[in-house]
């Protein structure tokens, strides 16, 4: 699927808004005293706590190059927490952005792929043997446990940049649950909890995230059902595009491509690891 610069900007802005809303909710509830989220280059820069996967710059540089003064202030704030500055930069960002970052000492750590599917056509029919339900207050803990267990037992496929401990994954899931702007789902195979996922819709973009299957329940249709449910609900809400981010060459990428997703562009992960 061809993605224009204008569409890439919408996707990056939706991703940035998802990060902004999530970190703002974490800070408002007092879960992380030093958490902040700042506007930067059309995107956002976020910090939750040292070591959090949510510490990053996302969505920046697609409208215009980053402002050097604002970036320097962010780097200093992160340095005070002993945290490296990390930028997830779309390959469709203006070229000056990457040049400015490498001139400041940022180094390439790896890539992630952004895959897109049009919602103009109805998604595939769901497997009747798999039941998908919305998360409720009663199933919130089960949703979080499923995501943590699924992520903690990766399938060792693809060029994965980051490896987080089970405790780190559990902490970020507790953080993410504070944001109320997500739709969250659980999948049951034969009445047994098998997988979980989430979705957030912003400006016609359905960002599909937080998807995992319990190791013992893999290859039984849970993820197919979770994808189908989210696509159908996103389409019903008027979204135009569904977006999923995966590690390059991963089984997750292969799975979503079987369901109509195509590679739109990549993000380069650039890190300035000079924290003291």
Can you lay out the helices and strands and say which pair or pack?
Layout: H1 5-28, E1 36-40, E2 43-47, E3 56-58, H2 68-80, E4 85-90, H3 95-103, E5 107-118, E6 130-134, H4 140-152, H5 166-176, E7 183-189, E8 192-202, E9 205-213, H6 222-236, E10 241-246, H7 251-257, E11 262-272
Parallel strand pairs: 3-4, 9-10
Antiparallel strand pairs: 1-2, 2-3, 4-11, 5-10, 5-11, 6-7, 7-8, 8-9
Helix pairs in contact: 4-5
Describe the model.
With 276 residues, the chain is of the alpha+beta class. The protein starts with a helix and ends with a strand. The longest helix is centred in the N-terminal third of the chain and has 24 residues, at 5-28. The protein is built from seven helices and eleven strands. The chain has two domains: 5-112 and 267-272, no CATH class; 130-265, Aminopeptidase (3-Layer(aba) Sandwich).
What level of helicity do the residues show?
25-40%
Q: From the coordinates shown, what is the CATH architecture of the largest domain? A: 3-Layer(aba) Sandwich
* Count of alpha/pi helices: 7
Strand order of the largest sheet: 1-2-3-4-11-5-10-9-8-7-6
CATH topology of the largest domain: Aminopeptidase
> How many β-strands, per DSSP?
11
Q: On the 0-100 scale, what is the average pLDDT? A: 90
Sheet with the most strands?
A: 11 strands, mixed
Strand content: 25-35%
In CATH, the homologous superfamily of the largest domain goes by the name Gcn5-related N-acetyltransferase (GNAT)
What is the terminal separation in angstroms?
43 Å
Total count of domains: 2
Radius of gyration from the alpha-carbon trace, in angstroms: 18 Å
Q: Uncertain runs with pLDDT below 50, 5 residues or more? A: none
CATH classification class of the largest domain: Alpha Beta
């Amino acid at each position: 699927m061809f993605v224009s610069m204008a569409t890439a900007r919408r996707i990056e802005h939706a991703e940035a808004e998802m990060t902004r809303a999530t970190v703002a909710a974490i800070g408002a509830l007092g879960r992380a005293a030093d958490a902040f989220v700042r506007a930067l280059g059309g995107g956002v820069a976020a910090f939750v706590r040292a070591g959090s996967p949510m510490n990053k710059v996302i969505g920046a540089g697609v409208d215009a190059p980053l402002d050097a003064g604002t970036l320097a202030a962010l780097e200093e704030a992160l340095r005070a927490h002993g945290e490296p500055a990390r930028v997830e930069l779309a390959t469709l960002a203006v070229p000056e952005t990457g040049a400015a970052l490498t001139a400041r000492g940022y180094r390439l750590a790896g890539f992630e792929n952004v895959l897109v599917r049009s919602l103009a056509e109805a998604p595939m029919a769901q497997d009747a043997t798999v039941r998908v339900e919305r998360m409720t207050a009663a199933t919130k803990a089960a949703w979080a446990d499923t995501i943590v267990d699924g992520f903690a037992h990766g399938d060792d496929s693809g060029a994965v940049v980051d490896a987080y401990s089970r405790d780190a994954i559990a902490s970020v899931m507790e953080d993410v649950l504070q944001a109320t702007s997500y739709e969250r789902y659980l999948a049951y195979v034969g009445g047994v909890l098998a997988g979980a996922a989430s979705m957030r819709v912003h400006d016609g973009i359905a960002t599909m995230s937080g998807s995992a299957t319990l190791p013992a329940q893999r290859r039984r249709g849970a993820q197919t059902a979770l994808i189908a449910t989210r696509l159908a609900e996103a389409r019903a809400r008027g979204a135009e595009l569904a977006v999923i981010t995966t590690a390059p060459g991963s089984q997750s990428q292969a799975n979503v491509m079987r369901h109509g997703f195509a590679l739109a562009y990549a993000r380069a992960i650039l890190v300035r690891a000079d924290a003291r």
